[in-house]
Amino acid sequence: MRTSEARAFGLRTAVAVATFVVAAAASAQSSDASAGIPRAPDGHPDLSGTWDNGAGIDFVRPRQDGDSICVVGCGGGGPPPARPAGAAPPGPSTPQYRPEVAARVADLDKRQVEEDPVLRCFAPGVPRIGPPDKIVQRAGEAVFLYEDVSGSFFRIVPTDGRPHPTNNEPSYLGDAVGHWEGDTLVVETVNFNDQTWLTDNGAFHTTDLRVVERLRRTADTLEWEATAYDPAVLAEPWQVAKRVARLTDLEIVESPPCIDRSLEHMVDDSHHTNPR
Amino acid sequence: MARTVLPFLAVLCTLSLCANAAAHHSVAGQFDSTKRTTITGVVTKVDWINPHVYVHMDVADEKGEVTTWRLESLPTAMLRKAGLTSEMIKGGGQKVTAVAILARNGTPNLGWLLNLTYEDGHEYVLAGE
Fold first, then answer.
1. What is the mean pLDDT of chain B?
2. Each residue of A88-117: pLDDT tens digit?
3. A182 inside domain
């Protein structure tokens, strides 16, 4: 074998070996990850459980000293708790709007205290509501439950192949249907009203909004991703930052009523920040 | 469980716990951190509501005239995460001293609650500094 052929052979061999090693590792990893996933009788991952996604108050690290309790601003306490691998840092990314509606977004953002529906306790909409706090899954459907500052909400997600209903009124949380892509539950939601925002920064949408969420479970975490499509106003589909929730045994409760009494006392347009 | 709590990071930012406080200060839009008051009385009612819990306190002056204060506080999820309940805040009817900052628009007897110290010595810090 000539030197150049020997080199080429060696290179091909090395590439083949490397490919095999990578593929084997990926397969093992996939197998390992898959092995820890609880499964429903139909073979799909069972997403049922109560999921703690931090809810924007990870920074609250209470301290107790005897009967005394410090809720926030307690000093010390060490670094914030570690986030699961892949979890996004707090704070929303921002949807990008078409130039012709940019002024409207800027105006709404400036007047957020007056205009943000969530500050008046309306349902936050999708994807703003974030990952479900609890999932109850059975053959043919999954029920998403939310304990939200605006109230308690539910979404029923058929997974039996039925199409979107055609006779429902547009709503805050829309009409959802789901299907499985491998071990990922893909939820498509349409038929929204236009009374919610995508984020707190004036991010309005139209009734043509379509949101696709992807949920994937490991043994004790739930990964949630969402993409919002509204081509009439968005310059591009908005990919919401991925969030990872942890399985918890702390059950959700009925949300106390949401009754705003603050906004009437605001004396300026101070932005009311919103970590989702 | 800590649940979705959106408008309230502002609280912390206002109280110098947030790096970008200048951009987010809705509590500062309602309350003046330079106008502080300390009142002593009895918690008569706790409105366990979102987005903010309200604590009602009856405060008597030296003549015995009673004024009811409304003290705004954190959202229920934060208090629940800390293990606080409305009954605990009521303190069983014992005397309590509250520190609060006052409404910027001059609304009387309205404040943002910073902490509560009860007659038996225990305290709840609801918005540290």
1. 82
2. 444 457 899 999 999 999 999 999 888 999
3. yes
DSSP string, A61-122: --EEETTEEE-S------SPPPPPTTPPPSS-----B-HHHHHHHHHHHHTHHHH-GGGGT-
Give A-chain residues touching B96 at CB under 8 angstroms.
none
Q: Using only C-alpha atoms, what is the Rg of chain B?
A: 14
Is residue A256 a part of any domain in this protein?
no
CATH of span B31-125: 2.40.50.140
The complex scores an ipTM of 0.82
Domain boundaries, chain B: 31-125
For residue A259, the Cα-to-chain-centroid distance in whole angstroms is 25
Chain A positions touching B26 (Cβ under 8 A) are: 113, 262, 266, 270-273
**pLDDT 10s digits, A30-87:** 445 677 899 999 999 999 999 998 877 877 889 999 999 999 888 755 444 554 554 5
Flag whether residue A52 sits within 8 Å of chain B, measured between CB atoms.
Answer: yes
Question: Is residue A164 situated within a structural domain?
Answer: yes
Question: How many structural domains is chain A composed of?
Answer: 1
The predicted model gives B115-129 an average pLDDT of 91
Under 8 Å between Cβ of A74 and A63 = yes
